[in-house]
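Justification of resources, computational component.

The compute hours requested in this renewal are based largely on the per-chain cost of generating structure records like the one below. Each record pairs the submitted sequence with a full structure-token output. That output is archived, and it is also reused by downstream analysis tasks.
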Amino acid sequence: MQTWQAIVLTLGIFFVSLFLPPQVMFVIVFGTALWAAIDSSPLELHRYKTGIACKPFLLFVACALLWIVAFPWYLSARYKIKNGTLALKG
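The structure output for this chain reads:
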């Protein structure tokens, strides 16, 4: 997912959740943060040159606390890793 698509998706989820009970947003944030942490392990996200390159636990914390910024950032980095356009750390 390209960066602009990740941002639009995240904002869309956020705005839709405003009309739902607060518990739903908590489940969405927790679930996507957990998914990002689990998904980042086989990708070895921590090996790439990106500001969100960290181990799965730290990624979970970042996504859980700063979801509106960290989740689309992760999606963008994931897309670049899958396409082979994100450079490895030296």
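Residues 22-43 form the longest helix (22 residues). The chain has one domain: 3-83.
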